[in-house]
Each structure stands twice: as structure tokens, then as C-alpha cells.
């Protein structure tokens, strides 16, 4: 589970741990938070391991995958949640370094973690790949051009992966939450903006990390074994596809 020390990642790691999965809690800088997630899982009888890795660094991803394979025999489920940095800016003020840099980091991370785990999944004839995306990949919002464009590229990457790996018993799906409450991203927005986003949702509030986690867990399990290449919004009805 990449980006699992806080927010959606932590909620998903805990839920998967409760459901009997052995969880790699990946983090890049938040070691203390990652260890708390691991402690919470193990206290409830689960198995978990905190692993530091930069998902844009090939050697880090390889080492993390090797550790999981050594410890537990392989990776059956990949949840890719790690969010690479991005600029909030208008198109008028956008630089290529901002846009191109975000595109490169987003796709490099997805490519590296996918390539690391799929050979083993192919050998076993089983795998679940779940990627966190955003509705901004389909519906623009002011200031979010770098994130929305990069996630649109991720969405299409995942569809190609889903198509090619389906004959090997591997599924690949996208989960697209709206703005999520109780996450670090909220801190980049004004309180007024956050209230407005919640009020604009037909359900009248922002989505919670645990609600996103339950959707991710569905795609990680056998219940979704014949579902692949899909895009699942978790947005309280703010947009319909």
C-alpha cells in the first residue's frame, strides 16, 4: 500500500489489516505516522510492516517489493495511493516544469510500482491493482490543471494495464474520491473553500477517508474479481459518469 501513513492510505491499510491482509505500510517521510498505523493493525491481530520508499525511485520500489516477497511470499494486491507533489496554478501562469514535472512523477510512480509487482502476479495467475485518482481528471477545476492532467494520464495508463493483464487473472481499477476530509490536502485550501466544496455536494459534506477505504477494499477483494478497467467515483453525487 503506497502512501499509507496518513489519510486515505492509513484508513485503507487499517481496513485491509482488519480483513486479514498482510499490509506493507509505505511512507516516504512520515515514519512516526506509519509506525502508528502498523501498531494499530498488529494490536488487532493483523500483520503489517512499515517500509520507507520513494515511489518515484526505482531502487526504492524494488527493495520494498523484495522485502514484501521475502517476508510474505509475494504481492497479491497493490493499492497505489502515494500522491506526488503538484503546483496549484492557473493555465496563464503555468510553466512546463510544473506540468511536465507532475506528469513525469505521476506516471513514473505508477509505472514503477506496477512493474514491480505484476511479474509475480502473472506467475501466480492472480492480482489486484487499485489506483487512487480524482474526478479532476475528467472535470476541470480552477487551479488544478497539473493534478487533473496527470491523473487523466494515470487513468488511461490503468485502462491499458487492465486490458493487457486481464488474461492473467489480474484486475486493475481506479477509485476517484472527491475532496477528502481529514487529509493533508485540506490544509492547502481555505476554510471557506472547504465549506463550499462540502456544501456543493448533494450529501452536504466531504467524503471521509474510511468511506474511500471501503471502496478500495472492494476492488482489492474477490468480490470484484470480474471487474477491471473501471473508474469508481466516491463523491457523494457531486458528479455523475
Portion in helices: 40-55%
Distance linking N and C termini? 27 Å
CATH fold node name: Rossmann fold
E-strand count:
6
Query: How many distinct folded domains?
Result: 1
Mean pLDDT: 93
Rounded Rg: 17 Å
What gross morphology would you assign? globular
* Helix and strand element order: HEHEHEHEHEHHE
Major sheet: 4 strands, parallel
What is the CATH architecture assignment? Answer: 3-Layer(aba) Sandwich
Structural commentary:
By secondary structure, this protein is an alpha/beta fold. The chain has one domain: NAD(P)-binding Rossmann-like Domain (Rossmann fold, 3-Layer(aba) Sandwich). Helix content is 46%, strand content 14%. It has helices at 7-18, 31-43, 58-72, 96-124, 145-165, 191-200, 209-220; strands at 22-27, 47-52, 77-80, 127-132, 170-177, 231-234. The strands form 2 sheets. The protein has a 4-stranded parallel β-sheet, sandwiched between helices. Strands 1-2 form a two-stranded parallel sheet. α2 links the parallel β1 and β2 (47-52). α1 packs parallel to α2 (31-43) and α1 packs across α7 (209-220). The protein starts with 6 loop residues before the first helix and ends in a 7-residue tail after the last strand. The mean pLDDT is 93.
